[in-house]
Please model this.
Amino acid sequence: MTAHPHFDSRGLPAGYPFKPADEITAADARAALARGLLLVDVRTTEELAVASVPGATHIPLHELDKRIDELADHDGPIAFMCHHGVRSMKATLMARALGKPQSMSVAGGIDAWSLAADSTVPRYERDGAGFKVVK
Model:
């Protein structure tokens, strides 16, 4: 995939404060799916309807503490994803506290995924009470 002109060689927005102990790039996460990475989307159902990554497990952030047992059978790495990376970092820290130490956040969220890992995943933004696809 051709790199977005405003992204660095890792597929991150220029100047993004990447935290390698807590995050994985979208491109690396996409490649890791074939090696057993579990991708968990913590966005809302409304966001999921606009854009999603095939095969991702959907557990909204506000339900994660009640549904963490759904991840009990997975003992490998888990990457949490949201729109831009804020909610997924919260999910990462929560999952670690709940016994999933191999948890990480997808840096830049599904927006970075669309730009750096899979351009078939639409980009979107909040539009009043809903969301709209953007180019």
Observations:
- The chain has five helices and seven strands.
- The chain has one domain: 23-134.
- Strands lie at 23-24, 38-41, 57-58, 78-81, 103-106, 123-127, 130-134.
